[in-house]
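help with these tokens:
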Amino acid sequence: MNSAVLTTIAATGFTVAFFHAAIPTHWLPFVLVSRTRGWSRGKTLAVSALAGLGHVALTSVLGLVIAWFGFQLDEHAEDLFPKIAGAVLLLIGAFYFWRQWSGRGVLHHHTPGGQHQARKECGHVHDHIHWEDELKESELGSKKAGDWAAISGLFMMLTLSPCEGFLPVYLSGVQFGWRGFVVLSLILGLGTLAGMLVFTWLTLVGLARFQVQKFERYEAALLGTIFTVLGVLLLIFGHLH
């Protein structure tokens, strides 16, 4: 039973990490900067992987804090913990559904120095992704800055924007102790790097013709669905256990 639960949580974590990384904010800036600077595909993918590792590292540190508090709670309420964790995940799912319903479904990251806003003058609609405009307004889009400045900017942009959607997954894995934390951290890294590198490569070779922006628009609803299902499963597994 425990193996089945951990496998379910790990599969859920991979889904969250991969589809979060598939959102254009995690790969489109690298493609745009690459085109501006004439980087090779290999260099672009390497920079993407480096930034992805920073993204994963900060998320794992935050997950470590959540896991530690979860261990303390599990120690004092072992029998109740699955119910508590399940209820928390249901609340988090409800929060993401509210976020989607209230028009905050896009969890957007900005480039350093770029805060472009949709407005009538630029002819953009509100669900338009403004990366090209933000890059023009930031140091990343300037050829005057060296490659290391651009790489550092991309690294900081992604590192300082942790995958908030994965943090509840760490909570659901608390009952498996440090083994669960390590497994989920590896899953986070695998899913994030896979998503970033796949979509970066597809765009570089001209195969990314589909509208990923439509998926980004419903990110909050997807996370709400995933955490609601995971919360229900934890409550069921806790009851059976």
